[in-house]
Structure formats: structure tokens, C-alpha cells
Amino acid sequence: MRSENGSTYRILALDVDGTLLDREGTLRPSTAAAVARAARAGIRPVLCTGRRYRRARPIAEQLRLDAPLVCNSGALVKDPSNHRTLWRADFEPDLLAELLTLFHAHDELPLSFTDRPPEGLDFLVARDPTGRPLYDDYLSRNRGHGEVDPHWPERIESGGHYHICTIGSRPDMLTFQSVIMAQLSGRVRTFVQKSPRYEGTMCEVLHHDASKWSALLHLAELWDVAPAEICAVGDDANDVPMLQGAGLGVAMGHAPADVLAAADHITGDHDNDGVAMVIDKILR
């Protein structure tokens, strides 16, 4: 339970897909039991996920967690007890306008996640269907949760946009990521990653100030927790900032090479109780 510098871990930051959940998207009883052991020992589990709030809440409920949820790869922090937004990293209107111009110039369709009450809709799209199979797979699996508004990209002055993405093949998304970073490096943060739930790969764009680590630091400040008192566990590109910043950054064994390189420690994979192994390590 003590870190290498002698401090006690007080926050256990846990990615969801590929970390807490196995390759089938299942929360294993052994993983849930380990998270409960950490909580009983005084280490506060915090879910830090690329999922939007609607899809993060059921995992927190399965684990019986009452802590705020870091959602949308760190662009949004929500309190599930009252659905209040604790922190959000919005794009400035001029930056968002430049970003949407790039989407249009490269024939990529933007999807903007929204921060609304639980009974509200989760994202904005200009059309549905789009005629693009990988994009339409995402829309069809989220039917009833998206607002179709052909003119939303023209009405951005009111703000509230914090997470923009597009969906396609991995090569196309990597190419578009390069385009974005060539134009907006230092102003935005991008991730190219694939959820096992969907056929397509996402190119996600956040404000440069947004990351799971930025969101965690906001909570740590509220709770008077030092960065050295945080243990973070993850497996993908959007986990790298928190693995590098935490007192103990742990990569899942199946993570890609760049994620493994960012970690202080490598645990087992998501099919072999990797999270439970980490918790056993820090509770010794």
C-alpha cells in the first residue's frame, strides 16, 4: 500500500475497457472483489474512461463506487450521485471553428459529445445514416442517444463542445490525426483507438488541457491528494498521461509498446486478473 517514496496510495485510477473489463467486455468477479478490497483499505477507486457518462455509470454501479467519474478520455468529470458536472474542458469557439474546418476539408464527419442530464441525448451528428458503414455501425448501436442536426457545426458560439470525434478505418483515422496535429499541435490532444464494442476506429479530439491525468488532478486537489499518492492503471493511448503522472503508473500486459514504455510497472493482461494483481501489489 506504500509507494516507493513512502507515501500511501489514496486514489486508484482505473481505465475501463481493456483494463477493468476482459476482452468480452465483462467485469470479472475476481476484479470486482479486488477493487472492493482496495476501497476497504482506504484507497479510493476512480473510473477513468474514454466512455461517455451514460456508458460509464453502469460499471461504477456494478462496483458500488460513489466517486466522481472521469469520462470522455478526461474531458468531463461527473458526480453520479447528482449528475453534476465537476469539471469540463471546452473548446474555445475559435479553436472549435478551426477544427471543424479541418473536418470539412478532409471529408470527415464530426460527432460532438454533449453534457446533458441523464435523460437527455449524448451527442450531435449532422446526419444519420451517413452512408459510411463504420460510422453508421456506431450510430446504429447508439440509436436513440444522438441528436441529428444538419446545422450544428454552424452554431458553435454557445459553447459546450468538449469532445469531437470521427469514425472510420484505423489507417484513415491515423492519417486524419496527422492532419489535425500538423495544424493544431499544442492546442488539441488526439487519440486514435478502437472500442471492442464497435467495428470502426475513432479519431478523438480534445482540448489540449483535457486528459485523464488533468481530470484526476482536479479530483486530487479537491481531496487534498498528492500526485505521488495516485496509482493509475490502463492499457491504451488515452491512459499514457495518467500513467506518466501518477506515483505508480501501471500498464496492462496486453497494452501496445508506447503504453508499456510509459508505465512504471507492467501487470497481467485483462483476461488474467491484471487489475487484481496490481491491487494485491499495492496492498502488501
Detailed description of the structure:
- The chain has 284 residues and is an alpha/beta fold.
- The protein has 2 domains: 151 residues, Rossmann fold (3-Layer(aba) Sandwich), CATH 3.40.50.1000; 115 residues, Hypothetical Protein, Haloacid Dehalogenase-like Hydrolase, Chain: A, domain 2 (2-Layer Sandwich).
- Helix content is 33%, strand content 21%.
- The chain contains 9 helices and 14 strands.
- A 6-stranded mixed sheet has the order 8-7-6-9-11-10.
- A hairpin with a 4-residue loop joins strand 3 and strand 4.
- Helix 1 packs parallel to helix 9.
- The N terminus is likely disordered.
- InterPro entries: Cof, HAD-like_sf, HAD-SF_hydro_IIB, HAD_sf.
- GO terms for molecular function: magnesium ion binding; phosphatase activity.
- This is HAD-superfamily hydrolase, subfamily IIB.
Characteristics of this structure?
single chain, 284 residues, alpha/beta, Rossmann fold, Hypothetical Protein, Haloacid Dehalogenase-like Hydrolase, Chain: A, domain 2, 2 domains, six-stranded mixed sheet, five-stranded parallel sheet, 14 strands, 33% helix, globular, disordered N terminus, HAD-like_sf, Cof, HAD_sf, phosphatase activity
